[in-house]
Specification:
Layout lengths: L1 H19 L1 H5 L6 E2 L7 E5 L2 E6 L2 E6 L2 E4 L7 E2 L7 E5 L2 E6 L2 E5 L5 E4 L2
Antiparallel strand pairs: 1-5, 2-3, 3-4, 4-5, 6-10, 7-8, 8-9, 9-10
């Protein structure tokens, strides 16, 4: 019984870890750093850090490279990145893309949320 309990706890921990890292899993095909992109990134400044969004994946520019970063909770966007899906959790509407949840912001636009 004790072994079964440990296995269950490890399984839950692994599932939680996988869902938290969904964006990095989705970005594996895009690599963790990129030198350039044919697409124009959307620039977001949040808490004095410049973030760039390319195909719904969040990066920060360090030197001349874009480095994969987790989307910061509360960061605001004017438009949603394309390719996601609408979801409802606990009666709240979200837009989900690459493991990142967005919700409508009170002041207009959208913001990164953690449901």
């Amino acid at each position: 019984m004790k072994k079964l309990r440990i296995i269950a706890i490890l399984g839950i921990a692994m599932l939680s870890f996988n869902s938290m890292n969904a964006q990095s899993d989705a970005a594996t095909t895009n690599k963790e750093t990129i030198n350039s992109s044919d697409k124009q990134p959307e620039k977001i400044v949040y808490k004095n850090i410049d973030y760039y969004i390319i195909d719904g994946v969040w990066y920060a520019k360090i030197k001349k490279r874009f480095v994969l970063r987790t989307a910061p909770k509360g960061a605001k966007l004017k438009n949603l990145p394309k390719g996601g899906e609408n979801v409802v959790m606990a009666g709240v509407k979200y837009y989900k893309l690459n493991g990142v949840f967005y919700k409508k912001s009170k002041g207009g636009g959208y913001e990164v949320a953690r449901p």
